[in-house]
Amino acid sequence: MIAFGKSNFGTTHEVPGVFYVTTSFFHINLVPLCPIASYIILDRAISGRGNLGVEIPLNEESVRIAYALAVSWVAILISIVSLAVFSTNQVNPAGILLSSLGLLGSLSLVLFLHFSEKVRYASYEDAIELCSHINAAARPMIERAINEKFNRLGDSRIPVVNATVVEEDEENSAKSKEIQMVNSENENSSEIV
Questions:
Q1: So where are the chain's domains?
Q2: DSSP per position, 59-114
């Protein structure tokens, strides 16, 4: 029987209790073929009405993870079948060894992709960047939740301030210079991120 349709794969950039990123794929028998769109899925504690998805530009990391998991699961199935075939004949010990190594390697990759913090969870910077795709009205609440999860005190945004630096030269006459703190990434911004 062949099953096909749309389903979500490639969960990544998770901030537990806040959101995670997933990509919707066209699939055949749960093998992701063509990515359709990526979404930030807000946790029900944040959205207040079940998991809510916000469409974002296609997330390359989510797509890569989905394809890597699909290839790993297919490799596991192939390894199991070839291991069964080579084990019943016991003619080819090299085939048994290669099938066993393929099975162990594929299982290791699946476990790594599911449980590795580096793959599964978002860094603080990634979480704040992903938050920029969310509705402006909900963004402050989500940024607060992200700051709490990453133990960041206060707001993540610091306003630009003017400051006066006083320098004394050799003759004890004071000179003052006016400086302005600016965002190093975006000089037109009125805030430091």
A1: 4-131, 157-193
A2: -HHHHHHHHHHHHHHHHHHHHHHHHHHHHHH---HHHHHHHHHHHHHHHHHHHHHH
